[in-house]
Design a protein that fits this description.
Helices cover 49% and strands 28% of the residues. It is built from 7 helices and 4 strands; from the N terminus they run H-H-H-H-H-H-H-E-E-E-E. The protein has a 4-stranded antiparallel β-sheet with strand order 1-2-3-4.
Amino acid sequence: MITFLIRARTAPPVLLVIAALVFLVPASPQADDTDSEIQGAILRQIEAFANDDDEAAWRVASEGIKQRFGSSEVFLAMVKQAYPAVHRASAIEFVRRVPHGDFEIQVVRLKGPEGKRWDAYYRMVLIDDQWKIGGVQMQPADLGI
């Protein structure tokens, strides 16, 4: 990298502008849009849980989730009981997104109400140009060394 910077100083100004544009323009604008849309959907649902707004949380759920639970009230009760770290997350970090053809997995590190950290694997599905949550699997986060 240092070699590149030294060479760039001696390059003609037009080349410097082109080199700057290459680094400033995202490699894949669609990937950035997908990341922000998926993260936005997850954040909307987590915010809805924090506000006990079962209808707003329900709107982000996929049709499969809606068929499985039948109503927003049943869904919210299940989340409260089975996923307290999602229901009352006190910290959220988006770790990575993994494409899987018809769906995407968004890995999110959450800190639950009791302070324990979790990795949440959100299954995201695109329905009518909107990302919906098709399920979540949780496991304790690996805290490393």
